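Exercise (ungraded).
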Amino acid sequence: MSDNKIGDVSMIPLGGVGQIGKNMMVLEVNDELLIIDAGVMFPENDLLGIDLVIPDFTYVKENKDRVKAIVLTHGHEDHIGAMPYLLKELDLDVPIYGTKLTLGLLEGKLKEHRIKDKKLKVVNPGNLVKVSSFEVEFIKVNHSIADTCALALHTPLGPIVYASDFKFDQTPIDGGVADFHKLAELGDSEPGVLALFSDSTNVEHEGYTLSEKIVGHTIDNIFRGARERIIVATFASNIHRVQQIADAAFKYKRKIALTGRSMINNVEIARRLGYLTIAEDMIVDIRDCDNIPDNKIVLLTTGSQGEPMAALTRMSRGDHYHIKIDEGDTVVISASAIPGNEKFIGQTINQLFERGANVIYEDVSGVHVSGHASQEELKLMINLTKPKYLVPTHGEYRHLYRHAKLAEEVGIESDNIYIASLGDRIKFTEDRIYKTESIKAGDVLVDGLGIGDVGNIVLRDRRLLSEDGVIIVVLTIDNNGNILSGPDIVTRGFVYIRESEELIAEANSRVEEALRKCEENKVTEWSSLKKTIRDSLNNYIYKKIKRRPMILPIIMEV
Amino acid sequence: MSDNKIGDVSMIPLGGVGQIGKNMMVLEVNDELLIIDAGVMFPENDLLGIDLVIPDFTYVKENKDRVKAIVLTHGHEDHIGAMPYLLKELDLDVPIYGTKLTLGLLEGKLKEHRIKDKKLKVVNPGNLVKVSSFEVEFIKVNHSIADTCALALHTPLGPIVYASDFKFDQTPIDGGVADFHKLAELGDSEPGVLALFSDSTNVEHEGYTLSEKIVGHTIDNIFRGARERIIVATFASNIHRVQQIADAAFKYKRKIALTGRSMINNVEIARRLGYLTIAEDMIVDIRDCDNIPDNKIVLLTTGSQGEPMAALTRMSRGDHYHIKIDEGDTVVISASAIPGNEKFIGQTINQLFERGANVIYEDVSGVHVSGHASQEELKLMINLTKPKYLVPTHGEYRHLYRHAKLAEEVGIESDNIYIASLGDRIKFTEDRIYKTESIKAGDVLVDGLGIGDVGNIVLRDRRLLSEDGVIIVVLTIDNNGNILSGPDIVTRGFVYIRESEELIAEANSRVEEALRKCEENKVTEWSSLKKTIRDSLNNYIYKKIKRRPMILPIIMEV
């Protein structure tokens, strides 16, 4: 089953390398497995109709009995979003470790999926967890969600530091800077850090990522200047951002109303667990907004990515169930575009402006900072932990590559840096880091309730259908092969029928003509008939209008 | 037909406002029309299968006899790309004015569309053209294509400055700075500039847009450092960029090979017309590259936007007919992403890195500058021309809005600024600028040879088909309504059939069951039968797998 022998230490990325999202890693020491995170990825445009992408769980499924625990670094979708699928597919009964907020968010997710009785074990940053022969330390770092931890995974060859997503914020909102001392201590220990797995998301950015506190100043300025209603859209999971908005609301004597399902849920969880301090009387129901003067209210909403069904997007289109954008409203989009969403966000901004709002967005102001480390922080992480080996993670190939180059500048030898692909078993020894085998890994597509049933053939058909539509040709024949009725042509997504009757009529006679020839030549085999129909239509249509719809001949026998 | 009376001056945007691309404007003075540019827009992702978007020509078609001339500001697709469609639809025989390169590029386009015998009239920057009662001056400005002009459209109320796309480059490659003096002279004239129509594309950028010459320095540095093959991708129409690459090639003793149809065409046209100075012996056929040492060759290629079929994209995928990317190659992507293309470009960069190339791209170096004016240049344009009225153009709503705000800062009164929508007749008088009527205008979709035949219904069907595919249910009945064969189910793009036989079988029996009930209740009307099939399948499928494929019942009568 596995190349791992007693005494061996290896890591297997099942997600998050060569791609952004869907983070999942397996640590294998001797014959035991530890799973680190299990996240989703949101589908690219070419994955037509796909809702989510999750990791291929084949390896952990085949080695289920050797899995000893799951550890989670933080509560973002790309780190915990695939947990329900993992738990359902494997019916795992191992302990799941994470900080309070991380597990709080996971709990909500499991409830939605009706998964019960899992062993959720809350840890605090700084804790050391022992399970079977694994020892895992949770190390506080900063990120765009509270309660994020890096991990020190202790192995017989020394600790592996799994940095996950992080930044170093010198003035964080919750007062908790990253645990520099623990990272430094690991770097100074004997035999020293075996390997560092570090965040490549922002490796193209020079310098340092700005502190979350900067956003607070911008928000304060906006609140001070606004005379009427304020509407702020941000990521629902960015609890510190929400806190800063709530603080400004308190300072400028505005009540807060929430809209958007994930915003309402996340604020509820974060308040309940103590990550968000908003007095009860600060929050009003959105349906009561009309009773409050415009200069006494802030709306906190989802939709910062222009998602078609989110609350802010609905407001911009004018179909939000309760809020109508008015002249004088100040709308703040406190987020940056996730690549691929630029067009949606742009559209939302345009429509808000058209409705008379004053829109404040990232391109023109400091209403957002990233949660990921820039180049100088990545270097600091390397210099603090002084790892023997480096594995860049959380990035497309170009990010991993540039992170490798950055590490070389800091002094890591290029032989000691490994750019991983999904499913690589990365083996560590005292002298080298290398790949020993390829484990089955990849992207599993989720569409509705179907997991993995949409593959390349289905996607290729969807793509064909999306481009020029479909032409269906139906024919009824008797069992001697004589045509009883048809050919009838039905099209969808091809041309506007009412204005193309001539084209369709001509297409029909082309098919009839072709079938007549078949008859003359005594061709009665169904596959030949279908091919004849397809070829004659294909040629005619392409010549006539330069489109290539999918052509589907159907023969019914009576 | 028209609200324009003798003595009236109005402008009608048929493209380029509330959108980026598809630029087209009509100037109407008394009863005469002048067309300014006729460009295309590349379709957004949600326009499935659409190749191009062109303006709705209804107004100019209905008033064809009043059209006196067409003037073109520069040779980019979004300014001349719709000309073949305009000329074909209207069969116009009016003079077409433009600079030499602009008309050279147009000529190639007309040849492709087999349009002959058009009156192309070459003008030089600085020329004044008189046609019918119109007087148009061509004013040199800088942009990312050579030979770009702003226009002064002289009207009885004073000149309208139509700035089109521009930047002010103080150190341009061809030595020709913008004609500041003409712009200043117009601003100082009596009664002064009536209105300025100005480029809003880069209004979100502070300061000045960098000079094209900056890119030359970066390219020089790259050439100096490269030890093996250099491959540069850029916009084929960016002649000055191509010149700078050619200059570096000459300096570092490398030959140039071209790949990509538009690169080969544009370089040919620009060299023939004298806009590009590359000695004959500098250029080699790409098929002869293998005979030249890697450090003696530069490839100039298309594909800077990651277009699926372009030469660089093919190289990145490993299926270019001649060029194989090797370890040691330096690839320069000398362009920025047009919004919506980020993902494609990212993919190309990843794959080039994976093949071992050193990729230099915008995010990490100065290999590209914009061709559009930033805020300070936009202000300078206003201060030079001192217009009474301002109409921001070439932008989505948010760009137009911000340009309006910028103009207010410079001192234009807000009542004198008009944010236009497509088809607004913008009327000018001595005291005010206002909209008098709405002209039919909008986006016409081109798909293959079909112009405007794909509308909302077809697009909605394509979207439905793209998301969850199609289920076709066929049924043969006799003329008494008895079922002779079927129901047969055929699906495409829905599920992978081999792994979903059970689902399809169950769906089939649901349909049979529903039809049996129809029979019992003596329901034989086709529309009722079809509705029954659709409803029963819809319910079953959604419950079972949470997808909503298009369901197409087809009944054949024998």
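Further reading is listed at the end of the chapter. For now, observe: Chain B has 15 helices and 26 strands. The CA atoms of residues 478 and 558 of chain B lie 5 Å apart.
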